Amino acid sequence: MKQFTFSDMNRASGEILEAALVEPVTLTKRGKDKLVILTAEQYRKLIGRSHTVAYGLMDAPEDIHRELMTGLEDIIEGDNA
Q1: How confident is the model at residue 28 (pLDDT cuts 50, 70, 90)?
Q2: Looking at the structure, do residues 19 and 58 belong to the same domain, yes or no?
Q3: How many domains does the chain have?
Q4: Closest to 25 in 3D by CA, of 7, 41, 33, 73
């Protein structure tokens, strides 16, 4: 796994992100691992999901539920206009 510092990220973010497309990249601060950058596919494999997360109306996290309800209200109001 390639390793870069936070300062490297400020100077060469494009290079670091390109490297992360090939393999996970570690970002360090003061010599300690702080972040790991990996592709979405690698992340899904890591957490054991092979597809996009889907929620039902009642089990969606509050922010997603609120956004969904706002969108539905906009659609309904548009039909009544």
Answers
A1: very high
A2: no
A3: 2
A4: 33
CA–CA gap between residue 33 and residue 6 (Å, rounded): 10
Beta bridge mates, 33: 28
Together in a domain, 31 and 59? no
State the burial class of residue 4 (Cβ atoms within 10 Å of its Cβ: 0-12, 13-18, 19+): buried
Q: Hey, how many other C-beta atoms are within 10 angstroms of the C-beta on 37? A: 19
User: How far, in Å, CA of 50 to CA of 5, rounded?
Assistant: 31
> What Rg value do the Cα atoms of the chain yield, rounded?
20
Give the residue-averaged pLDDT of 25-30: 93
Question: Of how many residues is the chain composed?
Answer: 81
| Residue ranges making up the domain that contains 66 | 53-81
In one letter, which amino acid is 5?
A: T
41, 21 contact by CB (below 8 A):
no
Which tokens belong to 63? 């922010």
